[in-house]
Known about the structure:
The chain is α/β, with parallel strands linked by helices. It has 15 helices and 18 strands. The protein has helices at residues 21-32, 57-65, 72-75, 112-126, 173-179, 247-257, 259-264, 311-331, 336-364, 370-386, 388-398, 408-431, 434-437, 447-457, 459-490; strands at 12-17, 37-41, 54-55, 78-80, 82-87, 90-96, 107-109, 129-132, 135-141, 146-152, 155-166, 188-197, 205-210, 218-225, 228-236, 269-280, 289-290, 293-295. Strands 1, 2, 8, 9, 10, 11, 17 and 18 form an eight-stranded mixed beta sheet that branches. Strands 6-5-13-14-15-12-16 form a seven-stranded mixed beta sheet. Mean pLDDT is 84; it is low at 1-6 and 437-444. Residues 17-23, 40-43, 49-54, 135-136, 167-169, 173, 191, 193, 232, 234, 277, 279, 297-299, 303, 308-312, 314 line the site of flavin-adenine dinucleotide (FAD).
Amino acid sequence: MADVGVKPSYDADVVIAGAGPAGAAAACHLARSGTSVILLDRVTFPRDKVCGDFVGPSALVELDSLGVSRMDRYARTNIARRAALYIGGEELISRPFPEIEGIPSHGRVIPRLALDQFIVEAARGAGARVMEGYRLTGFAAGREAVAVEAASSNGHLTLRCRLLLGADGSSSTVARLMRGSAPPRRDRFIAARAYFANVEGPDDQLDIYFDRSCYPGFYWLFPTGNGEANVGLGLALETWPAHNLTPAAMLRRLMRDDAALAARLRNARLRGKIVGWPLMTYNHRLKIVSDRVMLIGDAASLINPLNGEGIQYALLSARWAAETLAPCLRDDDFSARALAPFAARVESEMRYDMALSRLIVQLISNRALTPLWIGASKILAERAHKDANTARIVSGIFAGLLPARDAFKVVGGTIGEAARSLASKAVTRAFRGPRGWAGPGAYTAPAGFQLASDAAKDPADFAEWLKCAAACTLELGSQAAWHIIASSRKG
Length: 491
Ligand SMILES: Cc1cc2nc3c(=O)[nH]c(=O)nc-3n(C[C@H](O)[C@H](O)[C@H](O)COP(=O)(O)OP(=O)(O)OC[C@H]3O[C@@H](n4cnc5c(N)ncnc54)[C@H](O)[C@@H]3O)c2cc1C
């Protein structure tokens, strides 16, 4: 580690760059335990952040521990008790969130303008020094301190601290400087969101929509209360073949063409603009600690690639970081080795689940497989109508309550059934001869034929997709095996 020549006199024990849910929650936990904290953000609060605004039940538990749930304005935020799934404008299933002991059976939809302000207030109340309008521009980690460079409209300053927490979101400067590069393109999602007033339908229901024209993306309508709603769309950046519309353009088209969404927006008014934002999804290979520096929340790419949910992981990683730091602060040891338990905790809590999510996203990002996924979603919905346990698992996945691994058997069996159904269609087609093979395009062609035709058109792209799918399968296999061994040792 290069010595930057600072004396061990500090402006704060910990400087946190970014006062979103991750940074503000970490500031609150640390300040409460007596640690001196400076929380910097490049903007002033309240500030908007492009998001779906859904705060799942597990995130509500974290907000409770921060004291946010005792605020009057929080109590007035909109409660979501159920989720409905639509495919191609048709409702497949609508279910209340499952009951799980110790966790509320509802979520909330809280515009980020309000949510992030609540958490910053909690941090300030706990004793953190909040510096708004200060942008971290660089840092140097030395033997005795970190020198954090920040710029504001009044000029430049250097803050000395014992540890820097990078909580500066999906385009994190701290992460880029720590790793020396930007995260890989294939972990990137792009998303867009807009607010509407005068929306029809129930205020306590989250609507999630799929349509083959935007697979592997999904879009949503999340009511924020009083007839208003957050409407948005998220999409993996790398698909095969590539999409040629921007998320905002795709969302505009779906608001017009999707019968279910259009019905809820029949008399609605757009408030403001449709705004886009990038997301970086979880990748266990990315470094999240180094000497005197840690990353949390989106800066550490702690986003579930399957549903874009990140607030819960931002809040959880903030608490895990504060817990890891307690002995480091006591022993004055902030080496990468002393901080490693944080990375290990993130890995043990998230890696297995995210391995399954990543494999699913990798498979669906090949648009030739769209019929398989549409078929699997329909089969899953049909099963959920008949079987209470499947219904519980489906609604639990939407609410971010159940680890993906719990859903593995149900989802795996469903994909198998969908694949068998597609294969039988393919065989029927094959028997019909050449006229049967040349179906009316990608939507009706069985996935296998479409896959083969796409591979022939662009073998290099196809080989890259196949390589990534194989890597994701291996990762999932190794995680599953590791968990079996670990649980048999415990048993
Ligand atoms: C369209 C969309 C929809 C989403 N929907 C949901 C959803 O419904 N539910 C859910 O759980 N998750 C959702 N997410 C993910 C969620 O928004 C993030 O996971 C969450 O915001 C992460 O919080 P964070 O504190 O890590 O980062 P952020 O909320 O991004 O906060 C980072 C903060 O750092 C500040 N900052 C940035 N750079 C600097 C710098 N150099 N110096 C100082 N400050 C800096 C920023 O101003 C910002 O305040 C969605 C994301 C998108 C894009």
